[in-house]
Amino acid sequence: MYILRKLLFSALVVMLAACTEIPQGITPVGNFQLERYLGKWYEIARLDHSFERGLSDVSAQYRRNPDGSVEVINRGYSADQDAWKEAVGKALFIGEPTLGSLKVSFFGPFYGGYHIAALDDRDYRWALVVGPSRDYLWILARERNLPADVREQLVAKAQQLGFDINGLIWVGQNQPDA
């Protein structure tokens, strides 16, 4: 019985660690500067997943916590419920803080990968973020809209990295910030 419990525990640890891995063939950005990344980002596009399904006007706010972790506040508007939804989480660097690779938790000890695959390294105005698999992709920007050429560049990059760009949801950003 002890061996079975130990095997189950080991399998759980491996599965949880896999949730933060970087998808094969993707390299997070280097020379990452967290202080420049902090602040508000608007979600321009995403692949569909259950925790944001039906939400528009999605944004993320990143702030440094006193312990060095990053507070993450994700917010989106549900037209069906005529209400804002909000989730507060915590992000930690997986490796070196100069590598754009973090793990984020909204549910206690369970973390998911947050890997910045492309970033406007001059002004930090846009980012292409991927999760632990090719099922998770976000295009983020500091403004509610991105110029068409930047959108096309990020979509091309996502396709080059093996993401299903036909599944992208273009997120409306029409509600006033509350």
From TrEMBL:
Topology with respect to the bilayer: Lipid-anchor
Localization annotation: Cell outer membrane
A matching Pfam family: Lipocalin_2
UniProt cross-references to PROSITE patterns, sorted A to Z: LIPOCALIN, PROKAR_LIPOPROTEIN
Role played: Involved in the storage or transport of lipids necessary for membrane maintenance under stressful conditions. Displays a binding preference for lysophospholipids.
Subunit relationships: Homodimer.
Signal peptide: 1-17
Name of the protein this chain belongs to: Outer membrane lipoprotein Blc
InterPro entries according to UniProt: Calycin (IPR012674), Lipocalin_ApoD (IPR022271), Lipocalin_bac (IPR002446), Lipocalin_Blc-like_dom (IPR047202), Lipocalin_CS (IPR022272), Lipocln_cytosolic_FA-bd_dom (IPR000566)
Keyword terms of this UniProt record: Cell outer membrane, Lipid-binding, Lipoprotein, Membrane, Palmitate, Signal
GO cellular component, one term: cell outer membrane
The species this protein was found in: Candidatus Accumulibacter aalborgensis
